[in-house]
Structures are given as C-alpha cells and as structure tokens.
Amino acid sequence: MTDFTNANHLIEGYRRxxxxxxxxxxxxxxxxNLLKNVRQLQRELRDGTYEQGQGSVFRLNENGHIxxxxxxxxxxxVMQHALCNSVLVPELSRHLIHDNGxxxxxxxxxxxxxxxxxxxxxxxxxHGTEGYVLKIDFRKYFDxxxxxxxxxxxxxxxxxxxxxxxxxxxxxxxxxxxxxxxDEPDYIDGVFNALEYQNIDPxxxxxxxxxxxxxxxxxxxAQISGIFLPTPIDTWCKTVRGIHCYxxxxxxxxxxxxNKDYLRKLLEEIREIAHxxxxxxxxxxxxxxxxxxxxxYLKTKYVLTKSGKIIRRIPRDVVVRQRRKMKKLARFxxxxxxxxxxxxxxxxxxxxxxxxxxAKRTLSNMDNLYRRLTKWITKSTPSR
Length: 384
Known about the structure:
By secondary structure, the protein is α+β, with helices and mostly antiparallel strands. 50% of the residues lie in helices and 13% in strands. It contains 14 helices and 11 strands. The chain has helices at 7-21, 25-32, 34-47, 74-92, 109-127, 147-158, 164-174, 194-197, 220-228, 231-240, 260-277, 316-334, 340-352, 360-380, and strands at 56-62, 65-71, 132-137, 177-178, 210-211, 246-249, 252-257, 287-290, 295-297, 300-304, 310-313. The longest helix has 21 residues, at 360-380.
C-alpha cells in the first residue's frame, strides 16, 4: 500500500517543486538540507503534528480576469506534490469520466477539444445540424468548494492509505475562511467571492467563526479537488442519462442533444445535483443555443456547416486582448523590462496552437502586427 510520507515520494515532490521554481531562493535553501528537511516533514506527517503554513496570496490578471492565487511555502508544496502524485491523483482520477480532460497527465485542453470535435461529428452523422448545445459554467468555482462535501467524496477512495485523510483535513483547515465579521446564518450558503473578501477590515477577522469553503488556486491539491468534486454531475449525465456528446473541462460543461426540451429538463437535474454539492451555476453564462448558429467553447468559436465541416475561429475578444498585450509587451521591451527573445517567444506561444483554426486573415493581420512591433523594437533599441 502506498505511503505518501515515504522519503522517496517526498524527495520526488521536491524535484517537482525545483522543476517549476528552482530559481527561487526559498527552493534552493530547502534543497541544501533536503534530507534533513524531508525527515522532519516525514515525522510531522506521521505523528500528526504537521500544520500547513500561511504562505502568501497575490492577484493574477489572466486574460482579463483577476484571480486570487495562494502560494504555499516550499515545505507545504513538497508535501502536496507527494500526496497528489502518489495517492490523490491515481485514486481520484479512477472515478472521473474519460471526457474530463483538465490537469491530468496525457490530457489537457487539446485532448478536450479533440474529444469535443469527435462528439460533434458523431452528432452530425446522426442528426445533421439539427440540435442544441447546452453550455454550463460554475460561478466562483474554487472559492466555493465545500470542504465537508469534498472530504465525504474523497474518503471512500483514499481512507485505506495511511496518513492521507488526516493530512487532507489539515489542508482543508488551512483553507477555511474567517467570517467573524458577520453573524448571518445564510452567509455560508451564498456565493463566496475571495476578491471581495480581501476588502474586509482585518480587525474584524478575530477567528470567532470560520467557513469551510474555498481552495486556493495554485496548490496541487486544489487542481485535483476541482476536477473531482463535480464527478456526480458528470456520472449522472454520462452513465445514468447515457449522453454521448458530453464534455467537461474544469468548471465548464458542454452537452449536445437533438431535443431542446430534454436539455432544459437535464439542466434542472444538474442544478439539483450541483446544489447538493455546494456548486453554484452561473446563470449568466449558462445557456442553450441552436447548434447551427455557432457557439464558443474553450476559447474557440465553432461553426458546423451543412456539409459537416467544423469551422474553428478565434473569438474576437481573444484577438483584441492579444493585440493589446503585444503592444504593451513591446513597450516593456523598449524600456528594457523584457528581452526581444521573450517578446518573440510570447507571440510564438500564442500563435502555436492557432494553426488548426480557419482564421487566415486574422492570423495574417496578427503576423503583420508582430513584424511591425519587432521592427519598432529593433529600431528603438539598436544596442539590444
């Protein structure tokens, strides 16, 4: 039976940390006395004295969305990598549907897009362009992961492994939210927003009342927890309802079906299951659209033609955001805040997965902008 506190698993956890942030001073210091630190961590985990540190919290602007990221200490990150790689990911992923492609080895966004397009072709062979698409989005998903629900779901899968449930309890405890500022009994059942929570006066947070919600984005356990929690919804749709064209990616769900009334009824069933899990449906982004009209999924605009061809286009907001970003990075390059090589790599990274899109004119315009900005950078910084 796997024991994640085994020194080999903890050392492998450090190797993963070093691979991602080996340039950091804290990571290098931890590695200087690696065996000593691993032994100390092992003792704390086995005798139950381990407590997760505070870490740090910072804001990240990702594609126009401000997210709150929780950065763990090196010690806690090493432990969570060992826990996830040796126990949580292998055990919990067994219960996931095949078409859930987020944050798993061998899968990812490319896998999910291919599976979705395969389902789209399957639907066309049977129903043509007739049908509807149900898009479901979860609101403030990571902020509202309920600890009691997650623990209850994970327990049957991992309780046979030593020290796992006790350590998982310590991790969840460290992610509790201090809500001493309010006495409202319904506050826990509402939609929690971590960004708004940052504006609360710290003097009101006295540790009198806590809410068992939220998993900080950035922690290894948060990723597998976020994938695993909606499993009852996925299982209901794929196994109980037998829906073939169903795809999931983190907090996004998309379903294709020829009957609109069926999708409406299914959405009500999903709402009921989500309510029991403490998941909030984002009604603004959840919608049923006609298949022939086109729709957007995973930053790709899909159009299914009468001949069965799948047209992939880049959404306008993605193009606008990238143009603004390139102009801003070009100014940074001229000011010496980044190198020309870094500027080029950023555009190549964005451009890399666009070769399968039907956007010849858009990409040509973007390439022209890239060449103009590169020329301007070279002219403005001849010594670089």
